[in-house]
Specification:
With 340 residues, this protein is an alpha/beta fold. It has one domain: 3-Layer(aba) Sandwich (Rossmann fold), CATH 3.40.50.1820. Helix content is 41%, strand content 15%. It is built from twelve helices and eight strands. The chain has an eight-stranded mixed sheet with strand order 1-2-4-3-5-6-7-8, with helices on both faces. Helix 4 links the parallel strand 5 and strand 6. Helix 2 packs across helix 12, helix 3 packs across helix 4 and helix 5 crosses helix 8. The longest helix is centred in the first third of the chain and has 25 residues. The relative contact order is 0.14.
Length: 340
């Protein structure tokens, strides 16, 4: 074998090794602190410190001012269980361009906020925390937009503070059915905790692709998978898992479904009809699982239960239409907010 041939083989082997090394580095999940320290936020992150349940807590939030002439209105964005305020990035940008002030908090137990060792979670408590934050920011009335678990929280907020809720927008909210009453099995907090200790990037991606995105995947979703996986694998791993377990118990045991008819604020439902999200469906029998999480049905049924509500459907989209088709979703949202 000639020296030139040997050199070419060696060079090819080196390039292959470098490519594999680069691929391996790219696949490594970043590690973030207990309050998502190290994560890059799309706008400056602020913290609201307050006392709750005999302890000092801190809520992270973004407060994004209008990009152009202000229209005098404030929108509050409430994230879901496997989301953070930052996952609203494209919607924040679109609303800011239209003159809205946009506030995107991370609730206690989530993302950039405190993970308490002990906390009695309730939607009422999280709504009260949010109300305190808005009072500190001198926001007297706002449009409340809730996605996923944030939809359950936004409903509770509107029930508790109707005078401060200018409008309610629910984006694929969970809680449009009572999973427990429909046969989904109960888990103890300890069982949830053991489940959450095993969270990984691969597991998050698989679950979200199957449940949230109707089997589809886009590269831009990987950033949000890394955000969650990096939080769960960081130095706050045990506290993150414990608070996540408590929050799952909250979601399962405190339905808002039975109070949808009590809402007295203008309400719009924005529903991706291919969504199949349902707490407990992963351990339910095939018969029970088959009747849970059918958003093509749930959206219409909820619109009938909520007085005077409006339903906007996104056929074929899943649990997060604001992330799947942001331009389409944001235009529909802006048009809806502009309605009298």
């Amino acid at each position: 074998m000639s020296p030139t041939h040997v050199l070419k083989k060696s060079l090819a082997a080196l390039l292959t090794s470098l490519a594999l090394s680069a691929q391996a580095l790219a696949s490594v999940t970043p590690v973030y602190g207990e309050q998502l320290e190290g994560f890059t936020w799309p706008w400056p992150l602020h913290h609201f410190s307050f006392q709750s349940q005999q302890q000092s807590l801190s809520m992270g939030y973004m407060d994004v001012r209008p990009a152009h002439q202000a229209n005098g209105k404030t929108v509050v964005l409430m994230h879901g269980k496997n989301f953070c305020g930052a996952t609203w990035e494209e919607t924040i940008q679109a609303l800011s361009q239209q003159g809205y002030r946009v506030i995107a908090p991370d609730q206690i137990g989530f993302c950039s906020s405190t993970k308490p060792d002990r906390y009695q979670y309730s939607f009422q408590q999280l709504a009260a925390n949010t109300h305190q934050l808005l009072a500190r920011l001198e926001v007297k009335q706002a449009v409340m937009i809730g996605h996923s678990t944030g939809g359950m929280l936004a409903i509770r907020y509107a029930l508790m503070y109707p005078e401060q809720t200018q409008k309610l927008v629910l984006v694929n909210p969970i809680g449009l059915e009572d999973w427990k009453a429909r046969g989904a099995p109960w888990r103890s907090v300890d069982q949830w905790y053991q489940r959450e200790l095993r969270v990984s990037a691969a597991g998050i991606r698989k679950y979200e692709q199957q449940t949230y995105y109707a089997g589809r995947w886009k590269p831009e979703y990987d950033r949000w998978v890394d955000m969650l996986a990096g939080l769960n694998s960081g130095p706050g791993h045990l506290k993150v898992a414990w608070n996540s377990a408590l929050l799952y118990d909250l979601i399962f045991t405190q339905p808002v479904f039975y109070e949808l008819g009590e809402l007295k604020v203008p309400t719009t439902l924005m529903i991706g009809t291919a969504d199949t999200t349902a707490i407990g469906s992963d351990i339910a029998s095939p018969e029970v699982k088959a009747r849970l999480g059918d958003y093509a049905v749930l959206g219409k049924a909820a619109a009938q239960r909520i007085p005077g509500s409006r339903l906007i459907e996104f056929p074929g989209l899943g649990h997060a239409p604001q992330m799947e088709e942001p331009a389409k979703f944001n235009q529909a949202l802006i048009d809806d907010l502009a309605r009298p």
